[in-house]
Amino acid sequence: QVKLQESGPGLVIPSQTLSLTCTVSDDSITTPYFFWSWIRQSPGKGLEWMGAIGYEGTTYYSPYLKSRASITRDTTKNQFFLQLTSVTPEDTAVYFCTRSGGLGYDYWGQGTQVVVSS
Fold first, then answer.
1. What is the pLDDT of residues 49-69, one digit of tens each?
2. Sequence-distant (≥ 6) Cβ neighbours of residue 67 within 8 angstroms
């Protein structure tokens, strides 16, 4: 059973950078041919795909984030990361990290609540 666990601050000040970590266990983030994504859900809205990093390290981003998002990884720790710059209250959401492959999004973290507020 693959496990993903998000971690990071629950409160971020507007205009600052949000940084989240996803720690993966019982699978390697370099295992072909999986992708590791960040997805969020804002209050009253649906799920929003933010971006992903592939098993080989290639990154993909939602154009709606206008280059504010950056996804990186540390293969030695089996972790991948999200940085979101210039946050506003509209970035308040539950943030999930996920694994996807040929069967779709098959494993999810439990999610971490992030509030953007001064």
1. 999 999 999 999 999 987 999
2. 61
